[in-house]
Write a structure and sequence with these properties.
The structure is a homodimer. Chain A is of the alpha/beta class. In chain A, 47% of the residues lie in helices and 15% in strands. At the A-B interface, α12 of A face α12 of B.
């Protein structure tokens, strides 16, 4: 699969526009005072299906020919990409199948089904997941839409930074969380075209620091089953995202579990918006690295708000 | 005190603009499908100090002459108006004193103090509250800014509907929660000038239905210490707000405690925004009155987001 370029991003933005929200950008004088920076929060937690993932999924689904689309789409995901693909397929009126480990939380399965998709369960191992998906695709002819190692998905995620840049005035930096790297790759792609030289930072849980390690080592380092509350950021980089991350990310900043929870709580309390743990990592990193950002205008991508409201990390269960 | 007119509203909007957010209007296809209506949610939960109350308080504080302002402002409030007045006074650099019952929750006191105001405690009775405030004003010469029976406050709250109307295209109805009636009075004032004939609805907890009873009786009916989770809506109407409510409100719709909690939970879950119980009452009323709103474009004022995140009504404590 080819590396996406900025024309792909512009095409993606046009393609997905009818199916996504142009999410607002919020500011918070509380966080500006706390960090010494001027923060512009892009609220993808308000996005369709509750996360930026709708951008990439919609771009992939609506980029298919009618013939390709007829067999439906499939993926493996126990998180936001599964919901997003289900949402996108529903809007096009085609079938989406999402392979999930049989121990995935019921609400995650319910969300995929709620958007009209189908869940296929497998044993909770990488091998089972890949075998199940392969068999399913062989039988149905469905189009595989990888959560991030997919140029259509990266081009879709890149539209988020496009809107941030269009809706703000001369940012000094951008920051987004990094898991598989689809959003950060897309952010680099857009930033390098629209405001070359402006640094793009990624933020990662210390407990799942495979991207940070990869950047140190100069090659993709994988970490198996990391334990972090930021469950959207457990995935490892892949060739297409590494292409951008390795060459264009200014730095990867880390945050501990407690710092992530604290940043999440503060965001709920002061901004009155619901963000999921993965989404709080960049803010935790900015709070941790005051000297790096003080005095700068920083675009912060708030990635998603899919949280189980009955299980909040600051409440004892 | 005189009844405010629409010129007061326009002047208020100009006066408060530097100190308040022009809050966004969000839509939700989930709630549109659920209700059959087209809902436009005005997010005053994102407002300064977490509620629309900042509008009225800022208008009152910044409308004072320098001489009047020098002695500071004072009020009684254990809720959002106290925080809002403290915020407004802080922005003008004057003193705010808020009388609160000594059994008010610590976070409420902390919020007033956090914005620079002073809390004066009294015994938890209406008589103690009024005596304490009267004595305090006699001693200090502070300007009393009533939470709602105040034309400056009503004109300030009226700017909220002004923005809703400016930022949407031909609404068929407006709805807001009703406690003392400041917001609803202001909404009537603006709507009757900018889109005469368009109905304004108020929504009230069944457990604190004094405004509903007043509308039936044709005079202000007071209810003492009603028990509802919607703690911002326990107050009774007053002459200035009754002037508008009695003649211009189309109807007052009621919601039970469970309906309020359900609407609040659904808003958090589907819209990813934090609203307080009082703020969920209009949506609960719309869900309850599908036939009244189906097919209409409805502006819904989300009034505030000040919630104790450690005590959520759907979680057992």
């Amino acid at each position: 699969m080819s590396i996406p370029d900025f024309d792909d991003v512009k095409a993606a933005h046009k393609r997905i526009r009818p199916y996504i929200h142009r999410t607002p950008i919020l500011t918070s004088s509380f966080f500006n005072t706390l960090t010494g920076a001027e923060l512009y929060f892009k609220c993808e937690n308000f996005q369709k299906a509750g996360a930026f993932k709708a951008r990439g999924a919609v771009n992939a689904v609506f980029g298919l020919s009618d013939q390709e689309a007829a067999a439906g789409v499939a993926t493996h995901s126990s998180g936001n990409h599964g919901q997003a693909l289900s949402y996108a397929a529903g809007r096009r009126g085609i079938k989406a199948t999402v392979v999930m480990p049989d121990n995935a939380p019921e609400p995650k399965k319910a969300a995929v089904i709620g958007y009209g998709g189908q869940v296929v369960e497998c044993a909770p191992s990488n091998a089972a997941r890949e075998n199940t998906l392969r068999r399913l695709i062989e039988q149905s002819g469905a189009e595989f839409v990888h959560p991030y190692n997919d140029s259509r998905v990266i081009a879709g995620q890149a539209t988020c930074a496009l809107e941030v840049i269009e809706d703000t005035d001369h940012l000094d930096a951008l920051i987004a969380p990094i898991g598989g790297g689809g959003l950060v790759a897309g952010t680099c792609l857009t930033a390098s075209n629209l405001m070359p030289g402006t640094p793009v930072f990624a933020a990662e849980p210390k407990n799942a620091d495979d991207a940070w390690q990869s950047l140190q080592a100069g090659r993709i380092i994988e970490r198996d089953a990391p334990d972090t509350i930021a469950d959207g950021l457990k995935t490892n980089l892949a060739p297409l995202t590494w292409h951008f991350v390795s060459s264009q990310v200014k730095d990867i900043l880390l945050a501990t579990e407690q710092e992530i929870i604290d940043a999440m709580f503060l965001t709920w309390e002061r901004m009155k918006i619901i963000i999921e743990p993965s989404c709080a990592v960049p803010l935790a990193a900015i709070i941790n690295n005051r000297n790096l950002f003080a005095g700068l205008k920083v675009g912060v991508i708030l990635t998603g708000g899919n949280v189980d409201l009955n299980k909040l990390p600051w409440l004892k269960s």
